[in-house]
Amino acid sequence: MELTSWQFAVFSIAAIFVYNASRNARWRAGVLSLANVVFIASHLHAPLQALALVAMLTLGYVSTLVARRWNSTPVVSVCIAFVVIAFLYLKRYAFVSFLPTLPFAYLLLGLSYILFRIIHLIVDTASGDIEQRVTVWDYFNYTCNFLTFISGPIQRFQNWRDDANPSRALEAADVDEGMRRVIWGYFKILAVSAMANAVFLKLSPALIEPGAHPVASAAAARYLVTAAVYTVFLFYNFSGFIDVVIGFGRFFGMRLPENFNRPFVAANFLDFWGRWHMTLSNWFRDYMFNPLLRTLMGRFENPKLAPAFGVSGFFVTFAVMGIWHGSTTVFIAYGLVMGLGASVNKLYQLFMAARLGRKRYRALCSAPAYVYLCRGLTFAYFTMGVTALWVDFGQFAQLGRELGVIGTLAAYAGLTALGACAFAVADLLQAGFRRVLPAARVAGSRPLAAAFALAAVLLLALATNALFSQPPEFVYRAF
After folding, report:
1. Full-prediction pTM beyond 0.85?
2. Per mean pLDDT, which range of 226-230, 380-384, 454-458 is the poorest?
3. Is residue 20 predicted with pLDDT exceeding 80?
4. Which of 19, 132, 269, 365 could be bridged to 345 by S-S, CB 3.0 to 4.6 A?
């Protein structure tokens, strides 16, 4: 059951009607559990394939109970270590390839986000932030919620438990907001990301074909366009999926956290990751960066070392975040590139603040030309970084040979210019629309206009999707 398919939409709608048929707590928990089981089963070819998922869930639940019973730092560390080792083994990361594999195929889908939820449960249970005992039923529905099973957003258990309150009836605001988010989400997926994906699939094969480009400039030009189009596809595919699951979640009474906050208005790379896949960034901040920084500051009590610890923490955190995206060598390189980008960005901020002073540096950061240059540089770096999501190591090496050093630098400069100009034009158009299109002032006209607009968006999405044989797959499904 693909997330971008009509089957997923029909399944979600059916689950919503059955779930809201009663406000009984056991009924709603049971319906959600059944929906989760059916969704997971739709990705299985044989019952045995679920064994690894069951083992991971069992280990996580036992670890949570152990952390509640013996909440000392060594015990919690051991519990987390066991869970992480099990995850690395099941995902078959390159550095554990020497270990024997299981003698059967098993489901990998969802393990990455289950790992985050389990570690959160262990840590917050041990710290006392989760006061009540987590029941098996709640544990399963939280870790395996079919809406967030594959790629989040990552919701805290405390918030999930509050949303699971059966006494709360479905309100008109939930229906309106849910419908709006679902329709706009499918428009992003079926129209915008589908068109970008079609262009990308047409351009990318020739890009990594040996000898296809006689000069580096030709390779750089094709790579520039291909990489930019892929970033458009990636953003609208992923953010569209998030819109869909947040929208469907509203019908279940769930207020799932936002995962995107206009990432391409980010003024720098660190700001970008505070806006892109926010629940993942926040998870790494809370459960990796902050503990790492506290440990370093506690071991070396020298305030002058704080900036260095911050830079090191950013590098390690972003490197691990990048490596988490995939188990192959190219993803390890991707993680290191992301970690390098975060560290260099932090070093640059520290250098400029020291060189110019905080006041002059803030003034520079507010200058329009500087802002668009930084936005372009951020777009270019991220766009080239996510190349790892659409090439394997052999193709990556071939692309490097085609581009060379000069071609790579030219592509980066071109992407920077493209991003800066595109963002400047988009901001001008947006400001113009705000001036030209006044808000509707006639009482009662806004709901009607909004309904017509949503209907038009839905029809446009369906019409655009009809041009393609099938909708694009959800890109983050592989993680």
Report:
1. yes
2. 454-458
3. yes
4. 269
pLDDT band at 447; cut points 50, 70, 90? low
Q: Kind and range of the H or E element at 419?
A: helix 393-436
Neighbours of 311 (CB within 10 A): 18
The torsion angles phi and psi of 287, rounded to 5 degrees, stand at -110, 0
> Band of the pLDDT at 421, cuts 50, 70, 90?
very high
- Three-class DSSP labels, 346-401: HHHHHHHHHHHCHHHHHHHHCCHHHHHHHHHHHHHHHHHHHHHHCCCHHHHHHHHH
Kindly state the average pLDDT of the residues 234-250: 93
Alpha helices in 188-327 (DSSP H): 194-207, 216-251, 269-273, 278-284, 290-299, 306-324
SS3 (DSSP) at 134: coil
C-alpha distances out from residue 93 to 113, 121, 323, 467, Å: 16, 24, 10, 39
Bridge partner list, 24: none
Residue 260, beta-bridge partner list:
276
pLDDT confidence band for 446 (50 / 70 / 90) = low
Residue 441 has pLDDT above 70, yes or no: no
Please enumerate in sequence order all residues whose Cβ is within 8 A of that of 376, keeping only pairs 6 or more positions apart, or say none: 415, 416, 417, 418, 419, 420, 421, 423
- Separation between Cα atoms, residue 378 and residue 383, nearest integer Å: 8
Both tokens of residue 358?
């905080």
> Does the structure show a pLDDT above 60 at 347?
yes
Please report, as a single letter, which amino acid is at residue 296: L
Rounded Cα distance, 289 and 283, in Å: 9
Q: Which of the 8 DSSP states describes residue 170?
A: P
Within 73-215, residue ranges assigned H as helices are: 73-91, 111-127, 136-143, 157-163, 172-187, 194-207
DSSP secondary structure letter of residue 188 = I
CA atoms 369, 372, 374, 380: torsion sign:
negative
What is the share, in percent, of the chain residues with pLDDT greater than 90?
A: 46
Residue 413 buriedness (CB in 10 A; 0-12 / 13-18 / 19+): middle
Largest CA distance in the chain: 70
Report yes or no: 96 and 88 within 8 Å, Cβ to Cβ: yes
